[in-house]
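Dear Dr. V.,

Thank you for agreeing to look over these. As mentioned in my earlier message, I'm a first-year student in the group and I'm still getting used to reading structure tokens, so any feedback on how I've presented them would be very welcome. I ran two proteins. I've put each sequence directly above its structure. The first is here:
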Amino acid sequence: MTGSTFYQAILVISFIVAACTFVALFFVSAPYGRHIRMGWGPHLTNRMGWLLMESASAITMAVMFVVGDAPKTVVTVIFFIIWQAHYIHRAFIYPFQLRDGNKRMPFVVTLLAVVFNLGNSYVNGLYLFQLAGYSYSAGWLLDLRFLIGMALFIAGFSINRWADSILRNLRDPGETGYKIPHGGLYRYISCPNYFGEILEWSGWALATWSLPGLAFAVWTFANLAPRAWSHHQWYRQKFSDYPQKRKALIPGIW
């Protein structure tokens, strides 16, 4: 199989698996976090799971940046920096901020995420730093697709961090269990952290104007939208005083 064929195969598989995942996750919630349950094989800690999953993306993109033979431009360097800003935080900061970092996560969940992240960062990196790197001249900085995409990415990045901070500070030291989050977009939706991440990678797809970017945005929605719905239903079942007007993922809509 040639490099080009491998690249195309990963993209096709990504779209197919995203569609299947979107449907499946409405019936079977991924077994980690509040949806953890037995019967999924050996476990590891949440902290180690997140570190392994997300470091795969950071490391692979760094390798693709170094080995890519297209000239590095200010645009491709910006793309590299914002990708790493997300994944370095997710891999090496976020896991150590978790109050429940020693809770368990099925190893199979971590393994599947590592496989996805390796393929996803490979195709995005290959496109940016080899296949299309020559087309990202300085003029792309003034293109509306880049400007709007970057605005969406930054907004989503900020929303995601803010929502995570609210969740992290819900419990006092030594407390366990779950509470209803309030403040920020939690006033309107149950999962602003997921809303922010979907916004991030939708912005990435627009700013890069690439098929790998689109595949990643589609996958992010397919993975997180059903989980947001599961979270929303879980909150409503667990808390009798859960705000009735609050939606799952999209303010005022769903």
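The second protein is here, in the same arrangement:
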Amino acid sequence: MTAGGSSIPEVQALLRVLAAERRRAGEIGTAFGEGATAIATGLRPGGTLVTVELDPRRAEIAQKAFARLSSVRLIEGDWHVLEPFAPFDLLFVDVHEAKTDPAVLDLVETGGLVVIDDLTPGRPGPDPIREFWLRNPRFAAVEILTRPDMGAIVATRIS
């Protein structure tokens, strides 16, 4: 787990790859901006990313990191402020509370991708995040390892 700090380099690489040729991306939980930067650098020319961060200190740091990225719009506030900008064709959900909130589902267009990271492989017992995404009839989803001790879910909206 990253404890709310920065996304790991492997997740950043995954985001860059999945952002390729995407035009409208969203991110819930900017933190210090590493994930957003990875997405923004992968978007097709003219693509945009709207990212939201609740913590003012992190938002300030991230905003400085985005100084040369005209495709990024950072909003300080609760993740629900993304709703008017939806639907997205790529959404990175990096806030624990949002990972199982049904309202997140409507932020993604049909055919759009969602990335959920910070999963622990082999975690014993029921896992609400895995259950929510891997069994959701509106999404086709798979869990992948980003490194031996970390996993992510990649899902595409099918309805």
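From my reading of the second output: The longest helix spans residues 9-19. The CA atoms of residues 67 and 139 lie 35 Å apart. Does that match how you would interpret it?

Kind regards,
E.
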